[in-house]
Write a structure and sequence with these properties.
The structure is a single chain. The strands form two sheets. A six-stranded antiparallel sheet has the order 1-2-9-4-7-10. It is built from twelve helices and ten strands. By secondary structure, the protein is of the alpha+beta class. The protein has helices at residues 2-31, 118-124, 146-156, 165-182, 186-193, 198-211, 219-226, 230-241, 245-263, 267-273, 279-290, 294-304, and strands at 36-40, 43-48, 55-59, 62-68, 70-75, 78-82, 86-90, 94-102, 109-115, 139-143. The protein has three domains: 2-193, Jelly Rolls (Sandwich), CATH 2.60.120; 198-243; 254-313, Arc Repressor Mutant, subunit A (Orthogonal Bundle), CATH 1.10.10. Helix 1 runs parallel beside helix 3 (146-156), helix 6 crosses helix 7 (219-226) and helix 9 packs across helix 12 (294-304). A hairpin with a 2-residue loop joins strand 1 (36-40) and strand 2.
Length: 315
């Protein structure tokens, strides 16, 4: 019996690896030199031929499926790894620092991403057996299964049949979400689909901070927006984002300042535009986050012509 189980596991893993290889070859063929291809507005494939330094960005709610290579993502004080054996879920908007750690010209990093749609998830919930909502987690990594890879493989195959995308892609995206709801992240996904869940309440505060990141914030006011007591709000916010509300705001401020300096703003202009009252405090916090002074970092980024607005596509 043990030998049969072992043989089954080997065959199962072999089938999954075959799917990943086919998907990787298909992605490389269609992405070309651009390194990015979109199948639908919500589905994209990103390719990178080398490892990278940690790159700050903001992840929207999404699923990231690595076909080849590996990436580390730093959220608050946590570091997670995802590779072809695992997938990453961000269920709320998260300021993160991502780093591709396995990639080369011969074997590039290849990642497919799907933006999560709350309405589509809510429509699917009645079709999935009930399960506990779980913790107020805004992100997580779980093992990849054949049931998940199968609809992804059929979705990527549409790159060779673009005329079928309008009809088949929505059904395949729905199937992927259905498999997610059945899996270990299903409880968290139920929470973002329900307006009255703790995670959705925290998300209301997150959206407010993102819209007003350049303003002073009070935890009591954010707790009121979320409909919680300050103590409960702080606990659930930390569980969802791995950081405090003030840390979350600071990361948003520094990332926006970085984008502004690359475009045109001076260090002082960027500091004041994102809400800092002290340019020296801004420079200190910027250097702690990015490892270099604002002016030197902006000069380097301008030289490399990095478009930070596209960084979120590099999942």
């Amino acid at each position: 019996m043990a030998r049969l189980a072992e043989a089954y596991t080997r065959r199962h893993l072999s089938v999954m690896q075959h799917l990943l290889t086919e998907m990787s070859e298909l992605a490389r063929r269609h992405a070309g030199d651009a390194g990015l291809v979109r199948i639908t507005p919500n589905v994209s494939i990103m390719i990178a031929g080398s490892v990278t330094k940690p790159t700050p960005t903001v992840y929207e709610p999404m699923l990231c499926l690595v076909l080849q290579g590996a990436k580390h993502v730093m959220i608050g004080d946590q570091v997670l790894r995802y590779d072809p054996a695992s997938f990453f879920i961000a269920s709320v908007e998260l300021p993160v620092s991502g780093q591709i750690v396995e990639a080369s010209a011969d074997r590039p990093y290849i990642c497919a991403s799907l933006r999560l749609d709350r309405e589509e998830l809510a429509a699917l919930i009645p079709s999935v057996p009930e399960q506990p909502d779980g913790q107020t987690a805004g992100f997580g990594v779980s093992p990849v299964t054949h049931k998940m890879l199968d609809p992804w493989a059929r979705l990527l195959a549409l790159l060779d049949a673009p005329e079928d995308v309008p009809v088949l892609a929505p059904m395949l995206q729905r199937e992927i979400l259905y498999r997610l709801l059945q899996g270990p992240q299903g409880g968290v996904l139920r929470q973002i689909a329900r307006a009255d869940s703790r995670l959705s309440q925290v998300r209301q505060a997150l959206l407010w901070i993102r819209a007003h990141f350049d303003e002073a914030i009070r935890v009591e006011a954010l707790a009121e927006i979320a409909g919680m007591s300050p103590a409960s709000f702080h606990r659930h916010f930390k569980a969802a984002t791995a950081m405090s509300p003030l840390q979350y705001q600071k990361m948003l401020r520094l990332q926006e300042a970085r984008r502004l300096m690359v475009v045109s703003a001076s260090t002082t202009q960027a500091a004041y535009r994102v809400g800092y009252e002290s340019a020296s405090q801004f420079s200190r916090e910027y250097a702690r986050m990015f490892g270099v002074s604002p002016s030197r970092d902006a000069e380097r980024l301008r030289g490399e012509r990095i478009d930070l607005r596209e960084a979120s596509s590099a999942a």
